[in-house]
Amino acid sequence: MVIEIKNVRRSFRSVVKKEGLKSTFGLLFRPEYHVHEALKGVSFTLEPGSFNGLIGSNGAGKTTLLKILSGLIPPSAGEVKVLGHTPFHRTLDFRRKIALVMGQKAQLWWDLPAIDAFDLIRAIYEIPKPTYQERLHTLSELLDVQPMLNTQIRRLSLGERMKMELIGAILHWPSVIFLDEPTIGLDVFAAHKLREFLKVFNQKEKATIILTSHNMDDIERLCSRVLILKSGEVIFDGTPTGLTEKDEILLRVRLLENVPLAAMQQATGISDVNLERRGDEQINGNTFLFQIKKDQIVSILQVLMKKFQIADMGIEEQSLEKVIQRIYSEDRARTT
Amino acid sequence: MKHHQKIPHPRLQWRLAALKNGLQDATAYRIEFLFEIFGSAFVPAAVQWVLWYALFKIGGATRIGGMTYLEMIHYTFATLLFSQVRGGDHDFELGDMIRTGQLSNYLLRPVGVVEFIYIRGVAPRLLIAGICLLLGATVGLWFGLSPSRMVGAMSLALVGNIIHYQIGATLATTAFLWEESYSLLMVKNMVVSFLSGELIPLNLFPHSFQWIWKSFPFYLYVYGPAEYALGHWSHEEFIRQLGFSFLWILGAWLAIRASWGLGLKRYLSLGG
Which value does ipTM take for this structure? Predict the structure, then answer.
């Protein structure tokens, strides 16, 4: 296994600042602290060459986990091994084999063109010049940024900058790549290009990749395995298709009459988490989407046919985004 | 005949590349760079000149601290050169990187972050030192000063630049504890301005207070080089002071290792 983590916990202590000037002065003499548990016993292993998605809402612990895996911060408890190394020791050998790309943190120098930064990176990682030139050519071709290599970083668009960041991060051909929201703020075309590139790089170079993203397209198109984090705990670990191919379906029913959502809930007994009213009533009629188990179809349809006039119906494909939204809602309902 | 380019040792390679990169970065904006070289030097020099003019020409003093008006002007000129080499605020950059989490970008590269930031930051200083040396040696010749002394003095100023950064890099680690090190580094710079001899010659200190500037390495940045360049220090004294400066480097290196070793255990890598 390339990554093994066992029962990893991490907590952070921060100062609590109450509202008002009084508390501002109070802080000078007697600060109050709050301890936040970002990770609560996370365990999993990852295989070499795999492409893994790490998803979760804001504050779920994704970035903290990546920081621990890359060796930036130590865990408060638990064991972490990446490529056989304890990441926080940050040995030279470890640092040569990994890369971390943070969508919100620029690694290249703002006032210099990317080509100058890449040359420094080449020297840092002791990459032979012919190898460097070959890699740079391949990467800049794949990401379509060759004409911009000599342009000052600050003059590039967000998408172009992100592509340069990615090149700078992987010029040394790392075995493990941590990507923290690499498509954040990118337009559809740039995000697509970046995704295509990551896919090719993973397949060709067999690098193990962990990707965090709020963009479900990233996860769906790239990852063979998904881990969902919720409040510092892994609440799902499996394939993306495993998430959508449970024994649940999305039943679409269009009625001829106008029925309020509350009435529909009452009639079918389906909660608002699993029931959605879609579109403009004038155009689409009165369409409802039911997120239900397969064995519920017959009973739901019986109720609907008895109480309402059905115009048409069908089974729809579930989007990963919806499924994850539901997993979160269910988890929230369970814990409250 | 084939030309074989000599490739430097890998350890030297990244350092040379960082120097080159630092110089490229510092000179990215030409006007800003020229202002940095020439602009910042003239205010302290003007303050000194006004002060000496007032004391000697208006106040009627003939000697102050054993120095004549002309000697004071020579000293002012010498400090103008060496105080330019002392500067460079890359210790502030370190503190800011710890606070904002930008340090993460460097921690995962296979090079020492403190040394890397220094080398990138010192690159323009080396260029400035070269310009100042050329200027000092040329003007010095006119005043009968030895060019070899000017070379020695500039070397001491460069050693002072290392010590200055090392102390700053150690103080910057307070950002691991308190999240901010800006004020502390500002106070350090103010103390350095005073105790380096950049504003007044340190021999103007009352005899009973001389121990204050002698207890710190700051006099090695400007006062020491100026004294040697102007011929006030003997060669033996210069060698002795150079020896002291290496001891300071060793001590500060140990302080950096200890403070960064402890600090990094508290690093939070904030900012996303």
Answer: 0.85
